Amino acid sequence: MNAGSSSIKTALFDGALSETLRIEATGIGGAGALKVADTSQSVDLPDNASALAAIIEALEQQGIALTDLRCVAHRVVHGGTDLTTAQLITPQIRQQIADCIPLAPLHNPHHLAAIDAVQKVAPDLPQCASFDTAFHATIPTVAHRFALPNQPDLTGLRRYGFHGTSYAALTRKLPEHSGTLPRRLLALHLGNGASLCAIKDGQSIATTMGYSPLGGLTMGTRAGEIDAGAVLALVRMRGLDEADHLLHHQSGLLGLSGLSADMRTLESSETPEARFAIEHFCYWITRQAGSMIAALGGLDAIAFTGGIGENSHLVQSTVLENLRWMGDVPSYIVPAEEELHIAREAHGLLDQT
Questions:
Q1: Which of 144, 159, 166, 217 suits a disulfide with 210, CB 3.0-4.6 Å?
Q2: Strand 127-131 relative to strand 184-190: parallel, antiparallel, unpaired?
Q3: Strand pairing partners for 35?
Q4: Do 302 and 329 meet the contact criterion of CB atoms below 8 Å apart?
Q5: How far apart are CA 294 and CA 93, in angstroms?
Q6: What's residue 271's pLDDT?
Q7: Angle value at C-alpha 314, between 173 and 295, nearest 5 degrees
Q8: How far apart are CA 353 and CA 348, in angstroms?
Q9: pLDDT value at position 105?
Q10: pLDDT for the residue numbered 107
């Protein structure tokens, strides 16, 4: 179960970890849609609670009750510095996830709502959590620490990194394409949220997202790279709440194009603003790729994943052309398998109990 602010995506796996059913609730907060397998219907989804109820009802209509399952596994965006491996959810682990809400206020509350909703319906059903930040626990201190004073109240202000579930799945899947896992890998998770990761010997050593999922690349609606002084100026001009909303929801491809956050819409548009938004997206991927390559000390392969990474030939070809100075480096397109990775981690935890 992957619960977000505007969507909840669920996938059902059997004991052999083969996906048997997918249910997605989208458009939460208004007139939404519920997709069950290949069938979609319009439904009223005023909030996350109604979306979760619709998903549970859809499962039951397929002849599956929550109490029939062995486990429900959740993607949780932020596990802080302590939750660096998948966990069976206990009251203590739930509290630790809640303690990370200040680090991910737009994400962790939705994960907790899903955990609580399942617990209410099936209190004896085991639940597990996989953390997006966990894959980046291997980033060295020199790479994750900001140049801030060594004061106790500032220790949580550091680079955490995100999209870890996607990157972990990619490192497992890529050898099926490349024969072996490249030692120095530049991984690109490109979607509405976007980031790069420098993966050396299968471990994250640097990534473009930092303290929050707001940092790094130009994204669908997020600003990405922006000077801290500009953020402070924006807060003074617009106030904290409006500045926060602008940086998260009105910037990125949407803000630059004035048209859409969807790369498919921008690619089909002939407006100069849409063209520039795509150029900006690819430029900052290329520029920050240079930083990741420097951290790796060279480059052996490039791998694209995520909605844009897998499907936009324009973005793929532009980025590869921009990185041609690196020489003849093999590149791969790896379909995202985040849900399978989460299911695999949960399966491992249950086998240990």
A1: 159
A2: unpaired
A3: 24, 40
A4: yes
A5: 37
A6: 97
A7: 55
A8: 9
A9: 83
A10: 87
Taking the CA atoms of 304, 284, 278 and 324 in sequence, report the sign of the dihedral they define.
negative
Q: Measured between alpha carbons, how far is 83 from 95 in angstroms, rounded to an integer? A: 11
Successive 10-residue mean pLDDT values, the chain, 353 residues: 86 95 88 90 87 92 92 95 95 96 87 93 95 96 96 93 95 95 98 96 97 94 95 98 94 97 95 98 98 98 96 98 96 94 95 84
Residue type, 78: H
The secondary structure of residue 71, as a DSSP letter, is -
Q: Edge to edge, what strands does the sheet with 7-13 contain?
A: 2-3, 7-13, 19-26, 30-36, 39-45
Integer Cα distance of 296 and 206 in angstroms: 8
**pLDDT (0 to 100) of residue 48:** 83
Amino acid at 92: Q
Q: What is the per-residue pLDDT for 5?
A: 72
Residue located via tokens 């981690």: 345
Q: What is the C-alpha radius of gyration for the chain, rounded to an integer number of angstroms?
A: 20
Cα dihedral 305, 306, 311, 316 in deg (nearest 10): -50
> Residue written as tokens 């803000």?
255
Tokens of 65: 């009750």
DSSP string, 213-274: TTSSS--SS---S--HHHHHHHHHHH-HHHHHHHHHHS-HHHHHHSS-S-HHHHHT---HHH
| Pairing verdict, β 39-45 and 72-76 | unpaired
How far apart are alpha carbons 210 and 231 in whole angstroms?
15
Position 106 scores a pLDDT of: 79
CB 258 within 8 Å of CB 273: yes
Question: Which residue is catalytic, options 47, 68, 116, 132?
Answer: 132
Examine the residue annotation and report whether 132 is marked as an active-site residue of this protein: yes
DSSP assignment letter at 122? -
* Domains defined along the chain, listed by start: 2-131 (3.30.420.40), 179-338 (3.30.420.40)
Rounded Cα distance, 127 and 3, in Å = 14
Helix (H, G, I), strand (E, B), or coil: what is residue 324? helix
* Contact predicate 334/174, CB 8 Å: yes
